[in-house]
Amino acid sequence: MDRVSNLPDGVRGHILSFLPAKHIALTSVLSKSWLNLWKLIPILDIDDSEFLHPEEGKAERLEIRQSFVDFVDRVLALQDDSPIDRFSLKCITEDEDMLPQEMFVSKTLVKLKIRNDRCVDWWCGKGGTSLPMLKSLYIDSDLILWGKMKRFLSSFPVLEELRMASMEWKESHETVSSASLRKLSILGTGCEDYVNPKSISFDTPSLLYLNYSDLVAEDYPLVNMGKLLEARINLIVKDDQIKRVREPNNDLLQDDAGNVVLQFGNVVKLMNGIQNIQILYLTADTLEVLSLCCESMPVFNNLKTLGIKSEEGRGWQAVPALLRNCPHLEYLIIEGLLHNVTDKCGDACDCISREDKGRSLASCPVKKVEIQGFRGTMREINMIGHFLRSFKCLKEMGIFPEEEGPTNFENPGAFEYVEKILKLYNEISNCDVYFLVWGYMRRKWTTQ
Amino acid sequence: MSSKMIVLMSSDGQSFEVEEAVAIQSQTIAHMVEDDCVADGIPLANVESKILVKVIEYCKKYHVDEANPISEEDLNKWDEKFMDLEQSTIFELILAANYLNIKSLFDLTCQTVADMIKGKTPEEIRSTFNIENDFTPEEEEAVRKENQWAFE
């Protein structure tokens, strides 16, 4: 006896909702009573990798792709009758494929995630985009095209989470404006042809979390995010700009970067806008850019956690000013100690001998320091010693070795030596110093 | 501390005494308790005793507290054994869970049936559930063509 077909529609629909789209579509052929059942399902999870793999070459067959595209079109067209709560679409498309129009006009869609390895072309057709209920939008692609940001965002009046990675600004003056946005993740590549934007403004008064990675803009005229709690900022400096960043007033430098880089001091406006923040992560490039506004750096009164990432090609010029301006810092995370030595990383590190060293550190109330990517070089060990002597309130220092790149530990005996020194530091300082090494690493570095 | 008991009556006239805290995992029963109409027992016209026994077994297991401290992992293993049932019983359970509005049991039973569908061709699905194919060959061909991508 066929018990399953006699179950109420809602129940059968619930059973189907546990299946991926392909299997749901299959049931349409079981019998007449199953023909239209799939249309009742409020959650749709479409992943074309199921039917494209393992048979390669399937995707290229036009009829298959067309029928898949039609299916998606039809699913989205059903919205008026049976609203879709959640829709996830993962598929491999050619450049010519555009997203179905219905995706941009839906009265009920709440969450949308789009991922395309090559390019996502947001349709801005005649009717424009209207997704009045959309709360979360995630777009991941090598290139996202959507027109002007202001118009784009105005289509989502209640949007709370937005992720765009990676994208290019259409105009050189752009504004991110949304009263409802709480989480924003922008991974950008400047304007067309990898050019620095002229100005980027943020009018996002409800924003709590920001992940902003992009070429440095020449100006940040408006930064309205007073409620921001946490930010990760990566202001990318192009290779042909770094010299000018370090010597902004050097007239002898012959480069094209001049005019643009001289504006980078406006980054201070971005810093001013986020000065109420509690958790801040800055990359090596960002630190270089901040060196242009050390004197005007705002005070981060609420900052408890600061993370900085270092690279050997980038300097710590901004670190003393940063530390001085965080009067309530508790936790400092340093990913990579080695950095480009200048005479401006001043008293933060021990690289250049100076008399007044350590002052920005001495007044810093940080209680816990975490050092990641430790390579076991003498320079790093000296820096660690310098921190231990200078941070007056330090209670705990955790050191984690570099797991992937080259380290000094490959030299025979180096690991044991470093471990001994760190143990010594632990004994002679008031602070708890520990060096955490995975078993496999220890074995790798001690069997020489 | 003595716990409050309520009486559930199956469609075939059998009575089952159950702790109130266990029974109100069913939203339907929970509402009746709120509306205070449980004094003479709760008649469940749509659930026969054979199924009600299983429902009560499920609810007891899922009533996690100090007396019954069970981990999610163990619950998952228990679910597997619990759902080792004849097809007809599974469908009865689905209907009971739906009627009694016990979300986790409803999801579990539906997931079990979904797992029976997944990975099978339409012919295999029909065979598993005894579904009669009432399409004409032309009609079936048309349906397959419409969702061609799913059938390849």
Short description:
The complex is a heterodimer of chains A (448) and B (152). Chain A has 448 residues and is of the alpha/beta class.
Can you walk through the features of this model?
The complex is a heterodimer of chains A (448) and B (152). Chain A is α/β, with parallel strands linked by helices. Chain A is built from 14 helices and 17 strands. Chain A is globular, with a radius of gyration of 27 Å. Chain B has helices at residues 20-23, 27-34, 49-62, 72-82, 87-100, 103-117, 122-129, 137-146, 148-151, and strands at residues 5-9, 15-19, 42-43. Chain B is elongated, with a radius of gyration of 20 Å. The mean pLDDT of chain B is 89. A 3-stranded mixed beta sheet of chain B has the order 2-1-3. The A-B interface holds A 1-5, 7-8, 10-11, 14-23, 25-32, 34-35, 48, 51, 58, 63-65, 67-68, 70-71 and B 87-88, 91, 94-95, 98, 106-107, 110-111, 113-115, 117-119, 121-122, 125-126, 129-135, 140, 143-152. Chain B: Pathway: Protein modification; protein ubiquitination. Chain B: Pfam families: Skp1, Skp1_POZ. Chain B: Belongs to the SKP1 family. Chain B: This is SKP1-like protein 12.
| Average pLDDT figure of chain A | 84
The order of strands across the largest sheet of chain B is 2-1-3
Q: Summarize the largest interface: chains and residue counts.
A: A-B, 39 and 38 residues
Note the gap between the termini of chain A.
72 Å
Categorize the overall geometry of chain A. Answer: globular
Under CATH, the topology of one domain in chain B can be stated as Potassium Channel Kv1.1, Chain A
If helices are DSSP runs of H or I spanning 4 or more residues, what is the number of helices of chain B? Answer: 9
Q: Which consecutive residue ranges of chain A, at least 5 long each, have pLDDT under 50? A: none
Strand order of the largest sheet of chain A: 1-2-3-4-5-7-9-11-12-13-14-15-16-17
Rg of chain B from C-alpha positions?
20 Å
CATH superfamily of one domain in chain B: Potassium Channel Kv1.1, Chain A
> Quick one: biggest sheet of chain B?
3 strands, mixed
